[in-house]
Structure formats: structure tokens, C-alpha cells
């Protein structure tokens, strides 16, 4: 519900120069505890409540007592001028005792927001304005009536003020408030979407890993192509083969390299084909040449095998120096 649904339209208003005695009489006569103070254009400039009258009356009495003492001291026993007497006897007005500034709400303000406003600021009522002019007031009692009332269509009052009729012509029709439909916490489609996201992310991750691995293999291939087997390195390989034989092994891995180092991607080695040595490049080709000239005449064999098959394709290749079983 909105402010215009619950507000009191017949509001007691006060002019800024309304005497305090008149304010008290009006509040008693209308049976209300407060009234807004409005200017000549209907704008709310303050609020006067019973509490303001009582508190300000006490404060005014004390102030007047102090003023009388001060004036008597200045006059030194002489009669005061007429305008001083008028100042003493002037009755205070709404402007003197009103609380200002005043919190107001628009006619379309939701009643829940009005309730929060009253609680937050510790006030009992709030004026309702349209285009800056007072059109009603909403009090705590008005909100309680809403809570206590049975749900029913709000009947339109028989008489409307001209200002409120002007609002009815200007204000757009309020859309009916619909209760939100109950939605399930989870849907199977949401779960399927999560599964799809997981697989998509996993596929992207695997693709990145393959790309990084390919870059590393290409770098390794280039390194092996550019690298040459020096005598010192060759002798270390032979020492390793010697130690392997001492451990009872019959072969020794001389070099492990990516299949891409072969001109055909190690297809001839995987077949195997007899001319597989022709596909070797770089360091693998140099090791083959060293074996062919130095170790083959001494009875050593050289074999090549594909060591793994990532994604079904040759991965790394190994060149093995073989000496086999002892002749018996």
C-alpha cells in the first residue's frame, strides 16, 4: 500500500504566526497531538506537537525570567520604553516553537518505507506532499489501522479535496503488486549447464597443456638439431653403458628425443622399416654415425624404439646401445 491509501486528508494546519494559545486550543478541539506548520503556498515548514508546547513553555518561562532580570539591571529602576514592554508581553507563535526541518513523504511512498522512516527517526507522524504542497499526514495510528484491517478493496471517500483530485488526474495508475511465484531451488537444466561448463573448461585446459607441450618439444628438437656430440659427451655415454653391463643389463639408452626429430615423425622406426636411420636428424644422427664407425665393428648393435604414444601418436623415441647375451 502507498501513502495515499492510508493518509488522513483532513489535516489541521497552522500558519507560522498562529499564537501558542490558539495552537493549544486547536489541538484540544481537534483531538490531535500535533499539526504541521505551512507557508502561504501550502509547503510544510515545521511541525508543532503537544510536547513542543510543553517543553518550549518551560524553556520560555525560564528565558523570560532571565530577560526580566537583565532588563531590570539595564534600566536601573527606571521605567522601560514601550517597545521593551511589548517585547516582554508578545505571545510566542508557531514559528517560535515548531520543530524544523520536517521529514515528508510523497503520496506514492510505500507504507513499509514509511514505517521504517518513523522508526529510524523516532517520530510519530509524517506529512504527505504532492508537488511540495501538503495533501495529508500518516501517523503510527494510520499504519496500525492497516495492519488491523481485514484484506478488502479500499473504498474511495465521497469527497476529495481539489488538490487530491489534481493528483488523481496526474498520477499514473499503480500496477498491481503480484506475489512472486514459487521457484524451485535447483533445476536439472542448471546442473547440465554446470557439467557443460566443466567439460568446456577441462577441454580448454587440456588444449593449453598440449600447446605448451608442443612448444617445449619443438624447442627440444631445435636444441638437438643444433647440438653436436663432443668426444667428452660420447665417452660419458660409453661409461654409462659400461656401468649398465656391470649391473647385468643388456642395453643402454644413449638418447631419448621427441619423435619430431625424425623427418617422418618416427613412422619408420615404429613400423619398423630397415631404412629408419635415414630419418634421424641432429644429435640422434650424430650418435648413429658414432656407433656405425666405432661400435658396430666391435659387435655392438643399435636399435630405436618408440617409447610412448600420447593421443595415439609416437611421442618420444629411444636410441639403445645393445650388446646382448654372452656367446656360450
Automatic annotation (TrEMBL):
Signal peptide coordinates: none
CDD domains associated with the record: CBS_pair_BON_assoc (cd04586)
UniProt domain CBS: residue ranges: 7-65, 98-155
Keywords, comma-separated and alphabetical: CBS domain
InterPro entries (UniProt xref): CBS_dom, CBS_dom_sf, Diverse_CBS-Domain
Classification via PANTHER family: CBS DOMAIN-CONTAINING PROTEIN CBSX3, MITOCHONDRIAL, OS02G0818000 PROTEIN
Name the UniProt record assigns to this protein: CBS domain protein
The organism of origin for this protein: Nitrospirillum amazonense
Upper taxonomic lineage: Bacteria, Pseudomonadati, Pseudomonadota, Alphaproteobacteria, Rhodospirillales
